[in-house]
């Protein structure tokens, strides 16, 4: 299983902060799977949306491979400081 | 490079919901260390206006665990690039009001050039790589703050 | 330029023999002004080593009257170049000991870029244009400190 | 008359902090006059010495004209901050 977290605007729009999903080979596959849910998911994970991601708390890109037990997070561009 | 890769890091990170005690942090950076010739401090404060709207308060969300790791990477890179004697980063989370300090970056070094460079480097990268998100309560309702293009431009100045 | 040539200056200069109250100066720069988004502070401190010699104490001489005029020119130029909400320069004179703060430059502005640029500009020009002279008491006797080439190079970065 | 001040190392080596001298047309003439005193004066105001000067508390160069009543200062390169 992979733990998936959502932060800030994504958490509010998707109405969930975390969930567990079946393991997939990489971040691209995970994003495709989430988009396939349709509705807000299709919109947020669609092309042209600027969503950032991390794997095990490190910034990641779509080619980042995933392993069972990984922690993935999706979030909007950061605005701290 | 004068930085000893095996040596202990001189930097410290704190994420807190309490107000930032600026004076105590600066004092600690220079206390009992007569090698420190310069301390440069950046303090980021909450303004009461943003994009033309009055802002009454703000909520700062973060990603516990990753926040510390992202900041640690930035500070390790700063310590590799410059010869530093101490670095403190304190970032608030939770509810904030206008004039509250949001973030402090303080850098001590022997000479001023290194302290200025490192301080600006840390805040530039914090703005684009540390997982914090601001939600503003304005006269036109609540809204998430959008990332500024200026911030990614500021980061790009530093190269890789 | 956003600076109003007819408007009142937002900068303040103090030359004193008393220790510098860093916290009070920073607090005053941001107090009750919710337009301030950034405060950058440079603190220059006395080190206990210079050119390989232990330094026990230092005497700072200045040219009363000209000191204030030279600093005023530097601050006026900073206010012309950047949109600033407040600037404080405090410089000590007389007897100093290692770890004492020699000079403080604190700049408040809406955004961090202007505060960083203006703070470094002011200290770079202070180092080459304000009439202060340091005399060190070392293990090898008393000596006047020589001007550093690095300081005139630092000034040159800013053009005219 | 012109008031002349000396600071830091110059004040110590010349063993004087201030004096009044007869008016001269410019800073170059004043420097020549001081150098003509010989001894430490010739050394400090000689060629190749990096001495800074101000007229009426503003940085000045050798071409700066002088007027009766002006305040001139000579000093080493500054080392504050």
Walk me through the structure:
The complex is a heterotetramer, with two copies of chain A (81 residues) and two copies of chain B (160 residues). By secondary structure, chain A is an alpha+beta fold. In chain A, 27% of the residues lie in helices and 26% in strands. Chain A contains three helices and five strands. Chain A has helices at residues 8-14, 27-35, 39-44, and strands at 2-6, 18-21, 52-55, 58-60, 71-75. Chain B has 160 residues and is of the alpha+beta class. Chain B has one domain: Alpha-Beta Complex (Aldehyde Oxidoreductase, domain 3), CATH 3.90.1170.40. Chain B has helices at residues 22-30, 66-81, 112-129, 149-156, and strands at residues 11-16, 38-45, 49-50, 53-62, 86-92, 94-96, 101-109, 132-138, 141-144. In chain B, a hairpin with a 2-residue loop joins strand 8 (132-138) and strand 9. In chain B, helix 2 (66-81) packs antiparallel against helix 3 (112-129) and helix 3 crosses helix 4 (149-156). Chain B is globular. The two termini of chain B are 17 Å apart. Residues 1-6 of chain B have low confidence and may be disordered. Chains in contact: A-B, B-C, C-D. The C-D interface holds C 44, 60-63, 65-66, 69-70, 91, 102-103, 123, 126-135, 144-148 and D 5, 7-9, 54, 57-59, 73, 75-81. Strand 2 (38-45) of chain B pairs antiparallel with strand 2 (38-45) of chain C, so a sheet runs across the interface.
